[in-house]
Specification:
heterodimer; A: alpha+beta; Glutaredoxin; 5 strands; 40% helix; 27% strand; globular; B: 4-stranded parallel beta sheet; 14% strand
Chain lengths: 77, 133
């Protein structure tokens, strides 16, 4: 599983990364977590506001820090 | 009044104040083109973030998620056909405010290149409407 966190390095982007890493650790799910700061790459997903979370190419959320509950749902197989 | 420099706007970080999304119709008429220029000018004035209305029509995931997390949606339609508002509503979004350019003293024509003075006059009216709320 590839999890991309789109954001230019703001506080909410950092919180998003921390939240995802925390849930991955708790659940034992293995995923490649990538922080995407390149604006062209971010815009290629059609995302207009960050932070955003993209899992295996699907945009799951944009514009806010995800709830742990949502992260668990996204990574559940 | 307005300086219409069309440039690549960076994706906005949502840290900070409320997110206001601006969706112009950008239709094939003078009022449609004015709607786009108005949306750009509103963004330059810090009133909201320009977003792609056709992306909502296409249900593009990034656009849909960006709209979902907006605290308020403003649709800027050129005429009463209200394509921007209806596109948003059909996608399940609540339009917090609709602006209709042809109701602000501009007659709809097939013009593609509205004059800056015309856009400036409409912009003043639009800002007046938004500030009166």
């Amino acid at each position: 599983m590839k999890i991309e966190i789109l954001g230019t390095g703001c506080a909410k982007c950092k919180k998003t990364k921390e939240a995802i890493e925390k849930v991955l650790k708790q659940t034992g799910v293995e995923a490649e977590v990538i922080k995407v700061e390149d604006i062209e790459k971010i815009m290629s997903y059609g995302v207009m506001i960050t932070p955003a979370v993209v899992i295996d190419g699907d945009v799951k959320l944009a514009g806010k820090v995800p709830d742990e509950k949502d992260i668990r749902k996204w990574i559940a197989k | 009044m307005a300086a219409y420099t069309v440039e690549n706007k960076e994706t906005k970080c949502s840290c900070g104040s409320a997110n206001v999304a601006l969706f112009p119709c950008a239709g094939a008429a003078n009022v449609g083109q004015i709607s786009n220029k108005i949306a750009i000018a509103l963004e330059e004035n810090g009133i909201g973030d320009l977003m792609c209305t056709v992306g909502i029509g296409a249900r593009a995931p990034g656009l849909m998620k960006s709209a979902e997390s907006s605290d308020r949606i403003i649709a800027i339609d050129g005429c009463p056909v209200s394509c921007a508002s209806k596109t948003l509503e059909l996608a399940g979004f609540k339009v917090g405010r609709q602006i209709v350019i042809s109701e602000l003293g501009i007659k709809k024509t097939k013009g593609r290149n509205p004059k800056d003075e015309e856009v400036g006059e409409v912009l003043e009216k639009v800002i007046g409407i938004l500030q009166s709320e």
